[in-house]
Amino acid sequence: TTASISDFAVWDGDVRIPGVILEKRRAEEIYKDLALQAIDPGLLAQEREDTASTAFTVQVAPIPAYGTKRLELEYSELLTVDNLESYYSFPFKPSEYGTQSVGHLAIRLQVSSKFAMGDLSVKSRGYPLAFIENTPQYKSASFEAQNVVLTEDFGFSYGLTIPRSAFEFL
Q1: In sequence order, what are the residues at sequence separation of 6 or more whose Cβ sits closer than 8 angstroms to the Cβ of residue 138?
Q2: How far is CA 49 from CA 9, 17, 23, 53, in A?
Q3: 25-41 pLDDT per residue, tens
Q4: Are 81 and 72 in contact (CB under 8 A)?
Q5: Is the dihedral of CA 167, 139, 123, 46 positive or negative?
Q6: How many CB atoms lie within 10 A of CB 76?
Q7: C-alpha count within 13 angstroms, C-beta hemisphere, residue 155
Q8: Which pTM does this prediction carry?
């Protein structure tokens, strides 16, 4: 797989509870035990470990009816390039349970490349990025808002500019 988790945490009020990486069966056992004790565990698992999937699922318990829970997730992913274009999408729009909203959503984006990148084109209108740094080899941007209704996924694309001299070695 080309994606890897670098940080995961569940917040209990103002207390950040950092995640720990464990073998899948052991993690599921601990999660179930803690959930039965009404302790606020969180479980992050990669979908289909036997494939190159970059999908993840997160389980958090307990969340009281009409309650909320703060999650923090950080990961990196190698993006594929096809015809000198790269596209990325993060699925915010729920596939089940109708419309959902987030009390506070913060996105921190960093994209780097050894080849020059063109402008980053944000595909989702609901998450306008504010650029912190925007150079040909490095893009850094953020989005932060309150009470966000998750009606679309977050996506962007960019093109690469490869110098002619690079093709001489291919």
Answers
A1: 110, 111, 112, 113
A2: 21, 25, 12, 7
A3: 776 777 677 667 665 55
A4: no
A5: positive
A6: 10
A7: 12
A8: 0.69
